Amino acid sequence: xxxIKKNEELSGSNFDRFRTAMVEVRFSSARSxxxxxxxxxxxxxxxxxxxxxxxxxxxxxxxNSVSNIVEKWVTRLKPRYWQEDLVEFCQSKDDxxxxxxxxxxxxxxxxxxxxxxxxxxxxxxYNDFGFEMLKKYVEINDFMVLDVITCSGIEYMFDEVNTIxxxx
Amino acid sequence: xxxxxxxxxxxxDNKEVLNSVFDCNNKLHCNWIVxxxxxxxxxxxxxxxxxxxxLHSRDHKQRDEMIENCGLFSRNVKxxxxxxxSNCWSARYSKxxxxxxxxxxMKRFAEEIEAEVFPEQNK
Lengths: 168, 123
Fold this sequence. Notes:
heterodimer, A: alpha+beta, four-stranded mixed beta sheet, 18% strand, B: mainly alpha, globular
């Protein structure tokens, strides 16, 4: 009986290790998927909440560790809010028609589209703003200020083009 | 790597071609006027970097970093150069042609960059 009990303990211990390893694999895979996704901050938020609900249902003891992981993700995602700065800037200017977030070769940039880029004062001011954004957010690699004519047909130059502002 | 003098010669040669061959009112010329204006400004920038700090860039990205960090150029020069670069890129790759108004503006931006970076050239 004594031997059997020992085996049972060992078996339980192995199961715990196996379960821990599986959880790590699951989280590692999920983390990788999230890192490679192009979801918006809002979509990440929804995903985090869903994950927390799911894991809390599965195992209440894991709630705190999951909260910590989610908190780290959210902290890391905060720089994505550069789009909000850009939208706020565009909203404050009457002659900005659109703003795009573009990606190519894993690099991220934005394009401001004006009604008319031949107005020196405005086009230079928007370039100044672009330089400020480059300094403020390390994940932005470049920017361009164009107008409705000069930006026409540029989509094919990028892997991805997302509209993040459109004048109402 | 080209010297400051070699960069100067390059942008002066480009200027001569721009002024003698191309016409801003001719729509067929506008894409090239924008492109040449950008390369004039590029060689002005390179000449200054080479002359003042013996800096030479390998590509556009490295040049942009040098422009930002060298402390030689005003915000005015940086923004005009950036706009020349953006429009040059658009002139080559977008489906629409540059308008004469933009060609004129880019030609003027290159002249203004030269006037600020090498004021002695215009005396």
